[in-house]
Amino acid sequence: MMAISQDTFKANTAYVMRDPDVGQSAQEFMDEQIEFTLQHRATTHPFLETYAKNGLPKEASKVLYLETLHYFKYLPFYVCGISTITRDEAMLRAIAFNARDELGQLKSHADIYHEFLLKKGISEEEITHYQCLPGTRALNDGIRALYSTPPLQKAMGALFADEAMSASMVSKYNDGLIREGLSERDRGFWTLHMQVEVGHSNAIFNVMEKHLQTQQERQTFIEGIHQYLHLMEMYWDGIAAKIKGMAHHG
């Protein structure tokens, strides 16, 4: 079990390491936001915590991972939306790096995830025809809007929260899959992503300082974090309610 903490982001073994030249004030501010994100109910949702400890029965697990597919299937496209609201090349490089990473050289992370679903016994037909929950649709619409609408600080706050939350989320998914009896090989997608999301968070950390100079800019960054985490919380609430309903009818 790998718990994600502040120290995970600061490690000199991180997939993308932090730039030591980022000023102390910006560093402390962003560290506070990571801590806030890691403690937020969107990251420590009771459903997710219980899943990490116990896993889920087959049909309920199927719902979780099909909803998850709809949560992040188009994220690289949305992330690229940020490129239209900045003229900072360092920022564009960080955005392009994150999106390019998700796309891979020959196989995208979405392709690898698709293979994971098939290994988990979810059929091609189920993957194609699954209709996601309203909370998952709202999450997509909200992220797309956040990443393509100025001010830049709000979009980057949302993305910063996304990467930190995801690092923790994938470690909990991995724990739940261990409980469900999946082999290390079949969990490859998740062990890969624990490192990747931390690196993506650090890539943003390294380019944000000049955009977080004033109190107003920092407040706007925080607003993006809060809006993203609210969407994420509703996503978990929706999945938890659906799975609870299945248990009652099961």
Per DSSP E runs of 2 or more residues, the count of β-strands stands at: 0
| Helix/strand/pairing category | mainly alpha
> What profile does the largest beta sheet have?
none
| Structure annotation, total helices | 12
Strand composition percent:
under 5%
Average of per-residue pLDDT values:
95
Q: Order of SSEs, N→C?
A: HHHHHHHHHHHH
Rounded to the nearest angstrom, the distance between the terminal CA atoms is 30 Å
Q: Rounded to an integer, what's the Rg over CA atoms? A: 18 Å
3D structure, described in words:
- This protein has 250 residues and is mainly α.
- It is 72% helix and 0% strand.
- It is built from twelve helices and no strands.
- The chain has helices at residues 6-10, 24-39, 46-54, 58-72, 75-80, 89-103, 109-119, 124-129, 134-148, 152-179, 188-205, 215-249.
- Helix 4 packs parallel to helix 9 (134-148), helix 9 runs antiparallel to helix 10 and helix 10 (152-179) runs parallel beside helix 12 (215-249).
- The longest helix has 35 residues, at 215-249.
- The radius of gyration is 18 Å and the shape is globular.
- The chain starts with 5 loop residues before the first helix and ends with a helix.
- 37% of the residues are buried.
- The model has no long low-confidence stretch (mean pLDDT 95).
